[in-house]
Amino acid sequence: MTEPIVTFQDVHKSFGDVEVLKGINLDIKPAEKVAVIGPSGSGKTTIIRMLMTLEKPTSGDIIVDGKNLWKMDKNGQLVDANEKHLREVRGDIGMVFQHFNLFPHMTILENCMTAPIHVKKENKQTAKQHSIQMLEKVGLGDKLDNYPSQLSGGQKQRVAMARALVMRPKVMLFDEVTSALDPELVGEVLEVIRDIAKEGEMAMILVTHEMDFALDVADKVLFLDEGVIAEQGTASEVIEHSSNERLQSFLKRFR
Ligand code: ADP
């Protein structure tokens, strides 16, 4: 059997007294496309941020490509970061945010070249070549010298995708990447994600409110509700055929 690329084992997360994730168990296979849906505040972003190592779990294990990110004591309580594993794993995971997070003072080509040069230690020429390839892939080969402020929201989001892809991650995380866009720009961004998904090898985790898109792209859908995975299955099982009442009432908002 193929080893999962991402595993969560009984992961809990509290902010102060509030427990926002209450025991998440999850296996994601290499190349699997997983959509995460659920009401606002259910913990979707926290899951993504923990995988990106931006948040630490309160307890539980997060294992990426066979590496456990955090050290536990013998009672299973979290002790500290496993710095070596964190460093290795950060290179394996790419993320696209809701608000693009591009560097405003750099051209889009420079935006893409920065991480390969500084994190992966690629030489400038190789980084440039890969960045141009990725910007062409997302349909922006004619905008290399533009600055982010000269682009539409949809184009900025496509730059953000190229910038993540150029690191050749094993896992790509997409956190509501279309929710800050004008409705007419959503389609072009989803189209690029669909293309990347079809290419195959990478695992993808997509937090999304686009149900048709999830049906089309996701192998597996998780419904997160109040910090637990309340329902999971194929996209069709979860989005079209579940009898879970809270899921049904959540989905009604999108019909
Ligand atoms: P979702 O992405 O499903 O909307 P989030 O993961 O963003 O949910 O948030 C889950 C809960 O955790 C919310 O109640 C939110 O207010 C809380 N939360 C998230 N981040 C923090 C933080 N840094 N400090 C305190 N509370 C937080």
UniProtKB/TrEMBL annotation:
InterPro entries: AAA+_ATPase, ABC_ATPase_HisP-typ, ABC_transporter-like_ATP-bd, ABC_transporter-like_CS, Ectoine_EhuA, MetN_ABC_transporter-like, P-loop_NTPase. It is found in: Cell membrane. It is a peripheral membrane protein. The lineage of its organism: Bacteria, Bacillati, Bacillota, Bacilli, Bacillales. Keywords: Amino-acid transport, ATP-binding, Cell membrane, Membrane, Nucleotide-binding, Transport. Residues 6-251 form the ABC transporter domain. Its main location: membrane. NCBIfam families: ectoine_ehuA (TIGR03005). GO terms for molecular function: ABC-type amino acid transporter activity; ATP binding; ATP hydrolysis activity. GO terms for cellular component: plasma membrane. The keyword Transferase does not apply. The keyword rRNA processing does not apply. Belongs to the ABC transporter superfamily. SMART domains: AAA (SM00382). This is Ectoine/hydroxyectoine ABC transporter ATP-binding protein EhuA.
